[in-house]
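Lab channel / #folding
Pinned by the channel admin:
"Please post every new chain as: sequence first, then the structure tokens as a reply. Keep commentary short and put observations after the output so the thread stays searchable."

First post following the new format, from NK:
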Amino acid sequence: MANITSYTINDVALYYHALKCVEKLLDVSAAQERVRAQLVDYIERRRAALSLPPLRTQIPTMGEKALAELRQMKLVTVEDGKVRLLPAGAEVLSHLTNGRGRNARRLILGRMIDTFNNVYGLVKEALSVRWKRDCVAFTSRSQRLSRRTG
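Reply from TO:
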């Protein structure tokens, strides 16, 4: 398992945008560029809304990094040079599309906890007692599902 070096709720939003970009089958290089462009656009809009200084770079490897993390979380896969959405990724998008953002956020957080060694500690500090119980429940559910799907 890898470690994650930082965590904010915006990271979850970045994953949503990246998943939306690969909803349709794309070549890896096209997917990386599409994800990078979408995420930079999202970050720029957030930056402007919060009156933060402009980005110093266009973050050339952001698409590659986001897709790698989605692959680690088993939300997408790469087969024959194409990025494909896995059922877990499709489930997150379904929740988002149908106005169930809280459920989508919980699924992403559960995947992050399962995938990255240190996310549980980061999330544990940031969440209320009720949320902690929910995350543990979603993590348990996610682990059961991942054991079934192999």
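NK: Strands lie at 26-27, 76-79, 82-85.
TO: also worth noting, The first strand starts at residue 26 and ends at 27.
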